[in-house]
Amino acid sequence: MSEKTQTMNRLPCPKCGGFLRKSGATPGGKQRWRCDRTSGCGYGTTNPSAGTRDQAGNITGSVRNPQFRRKLSGIKRFVITAAQNATPIHEDFLSSLQQYCAFNKAELVVIPIRYKNPTSRWAASQENEESWDPKLAPYLYNQRKKLCEHLMLLGDIKTVPTAERPLSGFEAITHGESGILGHTKLQLTTIPTPQDSQPKIMTTTGAITVPNYTDSKAGKKGEFHHTLGAVAVDIVGTKFFLRQINADKRNGDFIDLGQWYTPEEVLDAPPAKALVMGDTHRAQMDPRVERATFGPEGMAEVLDPEMLVFHDLHDGRAVNHHERKDPFAQISLREEEAHLAEQEVRDDVAWLQKVGGRRQVVIVPSNHDDFLTRWLRDVDWRRDPDNAEFYLESALAMVKQIKQTGKASDVFPYWVDKLRGDSKIRCLGRRESCNISGIELSLHGDLGPNGSRGSRQSLRRIGVKTIIGHSHSPGIEEGCYQVGTSSKLNMGYNIGPSSWMHAHCAVYANGKRSLLFIVDGQWRFK
Asked: 172, exposed or middle or buried, with CB in 10 Å at 0-12, 13-18, 19+?
């Protein structure tokens, strides 16, 4: 029997998470077992399956349900992942996570999960199903723990690794707090909360173990969606910042913010390939988001992305069809001097030139950018003298476009091209692709397959990885990442409980993605 097989067949200590080894016998001939952990647990038993008991006499752990606990209070940085039972770990990824923890003074937490796999290459029988690689013993944790006032670690929940939607049904389990659930598949969703509260984030972790599934349909789907990854969490007072760690399956290294973590060392990361902004709505952009993104030590400065990608850059307040027939809304726009469509467009392009600088800027065709085209089709310019000249020039541009190409294009790209000068600003067409590292960045999310309504659910399985916007509610569903918004969180029309959040998405130099949240104008631990 190999050394690895012997290790996997050892019994876990139900008290501390170490492992039990044979330690002589009683005078009556019964086998003794004692914990071999060097930390001095000292647990011994002749019946390891019975577990330990607390002062009230209740069983707190057993071979079938070992309890892994340690003190996590007062820690400011965590990196949390999951480990499947009776399955080898990815050795290089563990080493990279250890480098991360040493560099950031972070605590590694591994949530043990179980899966019965009679076809496993590593499980000799189902008797060892409650064992985990001994190298994980110092990091295993399967308790429910409040990491800060608004974030709960759900270490006591074991969701089967083949679950298609591991977060389904857990939306309310943490009450008002956000929650982290250990699972091999990466999923993230935001739960609407009353508008005076921060929306809940529910997320899974990814795994530190290698894929180990049955050859069934569910097993093969679980293997396909298996993510070698973790969740990085920074605690700042009552707030928290979390983001995804996606590791390279070959060598276990990964990028987080400005650093590249390898099994041997920590390096400065190359510039990110792209930073995809949450829906901008420039005229109603939250100034705190603008500072966190483009200000000193903001995301653009730290990540130094080669490309900036914008969704709903144009808000379209002056021509918004939702408010066009409301006379009181029109009075409000005039009071704010926000009723001039041309001025809003010019301000959009000027701002884009300022924040884009030397970088390539890509504008994704979006429903708010299309407000101008809808305005041209619906209104009578004679009834809007303030915007008449802008209307007529825009309409003439559409007519010329039809004569040249046989079809009308959107008006917003026409004005961007006219005003951008020598800036590296590119407006995508609705059928135009922008693919970076196999990730399609050209889809806003308002349109789904075959002209249907768009959503993460409808775009998660179109055969290509995507990053979309539109809903203002960030999330991850299989191959689809969705950014949040850069606008004010109260736009007037989003009444009731809201799941809107400020969140961008980075595409790192290694082609991996991570959602980056902005909370009260802050985006990372300092």
From this structure: exposed
196: which 2 tokens?
């005076």
Q: Which amino acid is at 139?
A: Y
Burial of 496-521, coded b for 16+ CB within 10 Å and e otherwise, reads eebbbbbbbbbbbbbebbbbbbbbee
Average pLDDT over residues 150-162: 91
Q: Is pLDDT of 337 > 50?
A: yes
- Cα separation, 312 vs 338, in Å, equals 17
Alpha helices in 79-163 (DSSP H): 91-104
The bridge status of strand 151-154 relative to strand 144-148 is: antiparallel
Q: Encode 179-231 in three state secondary structure.
A: EEECCCECEEEEECECCCCCCEEEEECCECECCCCCCCHHHHHHHHCECEEEE
Mean predicted confidence (pLDDT) in 435-443:
95
pLDDT band at 339, cuts 50/70/90?
confident
Checking if the pLDDT of 491 tops 60, the result is: yes
Q: Distance (Å, rounded) from C-alpha 430 to C-alpha 373?
A: 14
Is a pLDDT exceeding 60 seen at residue 52? no
Instruction: Please state at what angle helix 371-378 crosses helix 341-356, rounded to 10 degrees.
Output: 170
3-state SS class at 377: helix
The DSSP bridge partners found for residue 84 are 113
Do the beta carbons of residue 517 and residue 503 sit within 8 Å? yes
How far apart are alpha carbons 237 and 229 in whole angstroms? 26
Tokens 């996997």, residue located: 8
What is the SS3 assignment for 52?
strand
Question: Which pTM was predicted?
Answer: 0.85
Instruction: State pLDDT tens for residues 219-276.
Output: 899 888 999 999 999 999 889 999 999 999 999 999 999 999 999 999 999 999 999 9
Distance CA 237, CA 108 (A): 20
Calculate the average pLDDT of the chain: 86
| CA atoms of 144 and 44, how far apart (whole Å) | 26
Q: Compute CA 481 distance to the chain's CA centroid, rounded to the nearest angstrom.
A: 7
- Beta-carbon neighbour count of residue 244 at 10 Å? 26
Q: How high is the pLDDT of residue 8?
A: 42
Instruction: Give CA 65 to chain center in angstroms.
Output: 31
Q: Count the alpha carbons within 13 Å of 394 in the hemisphere toward its beta carbon.
A: 25
- 476 contacts 515 by C-beta, under 8 angstroms: yes
